[in-house]
Design a protein that fits this description.
heterodimer, A: alpha/beta, Trna Endonuclease, Chain: A, domain 1, 5-stranded mixed β-sheet, two-stranded antiparallel ribbon, 7 strands, B: alpha+beta, 10-stranded antiparallel β-sheet, two-stranded antiparallel sheet, about 25% helix
Chain lengths: ~140, ~250
């Protein structure tokens, strides 16, 4: 793993931990249960919604978005199957959402193209973009 | 003002020649990047322009910059559809009715919409954080001032866009939208009978261009989709074609 990749990974993990305590307070944080849940990070036990939390670092040379496209593909599969499971720990899923945490002022036309596809495939109410960082 | 053209086709429609035609005729911005099959790269004219001829029709391809976007691909739903989208500023992009009527007069066409992208974006977007870095006119922002909303995820306003007549919904078969101008092909008539559409009484213009193609201009000015008259016609159009039923059944 390169320094920049490990740096981005660590940054994403810290943001996710902060989000667990703030934005997603009341949700299950799946990383606390097992590190092997695929594609999703948080789970709304009441509405049975699985949420993928992704940080997009506008300061990095992050123009590929392969992780986002792969995540979208995984979420579409989870939505079709209706559950996400790893190592026997199941969660029934009635809906999936993608929460994209971007840096303030982030502007990237390639990112916009990704969002168009995600909104069309997941549905408008299931793609959330925010530059307000969890405190 | 940004103008958008959105076109929906069945997945068996043959559109390769159309992609090239649309790009050559309408794209006035210089792309900065390309997304091809979920991979993003910096624009390379020689390499990426050729993709219009060589890419498989099931692949997703888009070209973009801050000045516009050209996007096409298959939207994966229960019943997928081909989706083409062009967004540019109105000073370089406002295609004529005959031009678009020619573009959509082909097998597999479902629906096409030409509209004020800023209005459609605000009317459609559920979370206010999704557009906090964009600037809109006071009139466009006023179009959602009475839309009910809740606070979610701590500090994000979530609108109930059911109260917005100009919203778009992606569903099986097509993106269901309302435009300043709209075209409907015979694939759409399986969802709403042609006779029902043709009997709509409030359009500025409504015409059967052929047995397989209808055209309508719903309200007067693309620049002003938020006037009381334009909003009234959008609601009436939704009611007449029973968009709520279509959303409930297919979205």
């Amino acid at each position: 793993m390169s320094d920049s990749v490990s740096g981005n990974f660590a940054r994403g993990a810290i943001m996710e931990a902060k989000a667990a305590a703030t934005i997603f307070k009341g949700y299950e944080w799946l990383a606390e249960i097992t590190p092997f849940f695929k594609a999703v990070d948080f789970y709304d036990k009441i509405n049975l919604i699985a949420v993928s939390y992704k940080t997009v670092n506008g300061l990095a040379e992050n123009t590929k978005f392969a992780n986002l496209y792969n995540n979208l593909k995984d979420l579409m599969l989870i939505k079709q199957v209706g559950k996400t499971a790893k190592y026997g720990d199941d969660r029934i899923v009635k809906g999936v959402q993608m929460y994209l945490q971007v840096t303030p002022g982030y502007k990237n036309a390639a990112f916009d193209a990704f969002v168009i596809e995600a909104r069309k495939e997941l549905g408008e109410a299931n793609v959330i973009i925010s530059s307000k960082h969890p405190e | 003002m940004r103008v958008e053209l959105a076109l929906c086709f069945r997945t068996d429609a043959e559109l390769k020649e159309l992609y090239r035609h649309l790009f050559d005729k309408y794209i006035k911005f210089v792309p900065e990047w390309t997304t091809h099959n979920k991979k993003v790269s910096r624009w390379n004219e020689k390499k990426h322009y050729a993709l219009l001829n060589t890419c498989d029709e099931d692949e997703m391809l888009s070209f973009g910059s801050d000045d516009g976007m050209f996007f096409f691909g298959v939207i994966q739903r229960g019943h997928p559809y081909r989706y083409i989208k062009i967004v540019q500023n109105s000073d370089c992009f406002l295609p004529t009715t005959p031009d678009i009527s020619n573009v959509v007069d082909r097998d597999g066409f479902i629906a096409g919409y030409l509209y004020n992208e800023e209005y459609e974006f605000v009317q459609t977007t559920v979370y206010d954080s999704n557009y906090q870095d964009r600037v809109f006119s006071p009139e466009i922002l006023a179009s959602i001032k009475n839309t009910p909303s809740d606070m979610v995820f701590g500090n994000i306003k979530k609108f109930n866009t059911k109260f917005n007549p100009g919203r778009s919904v992606s569903m099986d078969y097509l993106s269901l939208q309302i435009g300043w101008k709209m075209w409907f092909g015979d694939a759409f008539f399986q969802l709403v009978p042609k006779e029902k559409i043709m009997s709509f009484p409030h359009a500025v213009h409504l015409e059967a261009l052929s047995d397989k193609l209808l055209y309508t201009q719903l309200y007067d000015r693309i620049e002003e989709p938020y006037t009381p008259d334009a909003v009234f016609k959008q609601w009436k159009w939704r009611e007449w074609l029973d968009y709520d039923r279509l959303e409930e059944k297919y979205a």
